[in-house]
Amino acid sequence: MNLSKYPVFKILFPYIFGILTAYFSGFNAENITPLFLPVIIFVAFSYFLFKNRGFFQQKMAVILVFFAFAGVGFMNTSFILNKKLTGEEERIIQEQKSWIVTIVEHPKKSEKSVKVIVSFKSQYFTKKEKAILYFKRDSVTAQFKYGDVLLVNTQLSPIEKPQNPNQFDYQTFMKRKGVNFTGFVKETAWSSIGQKIPNMVKYLSHNIQQKFSQMLFDAGLSGEEYSIATALILGNSDTMDPELRAVWTAAGVSHILCVSGMHVGIVFMIMNYLLFPLNFSKRSQTIKSLILLFMVWSYANITGLAPSVMRAGTMFTFVLFGNFLQRNTNVFHSLSASLFLLLTLNPLLLFEMGFQFSYSAVFGIVLLQKPIYKLYKPKTKVVKYFWELTSVSIAAQFATAPIAIYYFGQFPNYFLIGNLVVIFLSFWVVLTGVAIMVFSFIPYVSQLIGYLLIYEIKIMNYTAKFVEALPYSTTEQISISLLQLILIYLMFGFFFYAYSNKNKNSFLYGLLLLLAITGLYMYDKTSCKNQENITIYTISKSVAINFNQHGKSILLSDSIRTKADKRYQFSIKNHERKARINSKILNIQEDYEDKTFFKKGSFIFFNGKTLYLLTGNDKLYPSSEKLKIDYLYLSRNPRLKPEVVFKIFDCDMVIIDGNNWLNLEKEWIQYCREHDVNYHSMREEGAFTSK
Questions:
Q1: CA 185: distance to chain centroid?
Q2: Over 70: is that where the pLDDT of 586 sits?
Q3: Is 141 in contact with 115 (CB distance < 8 Å)?
Q4: Starting at the edge strand that comes first in sequence, how are the strands of the sheet with 597-600 ordered?
Q5: Nearest of 527, 564, 528, 567 to residue 544 by alpha carbon
Q6: What pTM, to 2 d.p., does this model score?
Q7: Contact between 12 and 340 (Cβ < 8 Å)
Q8: Do 588 and 617 contact (CB within 8 A), yes or no?
Q9: More confident: 577 or 249
């Protein structure tokens, strides 16, 4: 593979480097205009050097172009990151109670609440801000729509940082979307005052999506079949049950539930076939290209403009323009161009998980599918077709596996079995779904096609559940760092370049990176195995304490009973995976004893440390001497005053879990400050981990 044939890729790499530098450096400048000057100088000098054909000048020009586009990526990212409120503006937002807000995203409805993203602005600052508001679900709030304007009375507060180690960073995730605040609106604290559509295209697309969803329902789909069909065909996963999604994820086929380039390709193929009468002249072909472009982006809008759909739509746009200009379009070049264009419009897309999965999968297919396919030469058309599907699945899985392991810590071992059936059927599901919409005005025909679609999805669903239920269907508790993730992809790049260009040096660089990755893995594993600590997690209305010794731990909890519990999955699982901990869950009310852990009542002895659990039901009696303990954990609303407790205990650290007792928490903190007692407030600082 000769990179000189792909000029867009050569500027894409430094541009991404600039994005990463700006994002991770924490650069904060109110005015980035001075940075334009060196970029312009670099570009001017590189142009001058390119005109001179000397070897040295050419190399210097390449270096200057690298720094120029790295500077562009840096400035573009910094410009977005620096759009933040001042401290005074944040204070005003948190003090003000009444707001006129506009719903700018389609509401998400659960069993008990309605979640909406709204925009608002204050008379004290000009730019609009966004917030997440939660309403109790009833017959009125369930009817909220995109564009509704509401008058609400609520206390807005910044979205909280993650409270537990390695917990999903929801605050950063929403900040990338421009959402910084959240609030709960009481039943009587809001009123509707009209409607204002922020984006007519989004409004119409959602309405069309709802109409198409209704067509699927009218055709006889319901339950799991309906939720899978709407997710797979229309990109609407609101009705998808989390447990069903987990099954598809464990089977390695959850990517099918997201509308992707394959779905856009099917729509493109259908429309391209139906418009074949427009192939007779250049003018008619131009009209055909414009119609195809309109249909591709209309479908992309209907499905919610997911990253994979944006990528596919942009790629097809480049292909159509290439055909219009009568130029041969290279898929790798079109893919690189679409990536560069989307990151120019919004560089923070680079940090979106869906965006990363989408592009890594397609780059993997483009680069690896043919080499994998050539490993075996089928003799029949049927075997050839399924081997082609297999090679595509292997290439996509190989390219996305490092990202999946980094985020989720698991790998679906039988992904090939599930993908062969599900990918094959997904093509027909999309075709059948389109047929239902075409014949929706003939009820009997659409219902007949609906029965076919139901059984197609039943087979897909059965396959996913069958694969997930197989022994050892997933390898779990895998952990790699961000540095290891980057090194793995660099290693893949060197090995692929060595294979395609027969370059020995690239192969050696790949081996060196493999040694570095292995070394980092062994160092991390050894470090984790040497850990001995206590972690008290911050979980609303729950107590969870992890006593870790060399990777084996006791997890005490008053309400979490299994690792399938949502609270464990959200607050604890990722920490245990990253720290390479294998825990045993015990009821906090039970007594327990092993070689390093002893629990009797409220006293816990672990690895030479003593912890006492003080709850609202405890009755303490003074003794002649104070009891020396390392940690006093206030896990529930303690009825005893601090001065009474400290007559009995002499402790090194007070850990205050004040989720449900704000006033008493302040009293304890005040006492600790006045008497020079070390304390850790879990409300303010998050989870506690001993050293």
A1: 27
A2: yes
A3: no
A4: 592-593, 597-600, 603-606, 609-614, 627-634, 649-656, 679-681
A5: 567
A6: 0.81
A7: yes
A8: no
A9: 577
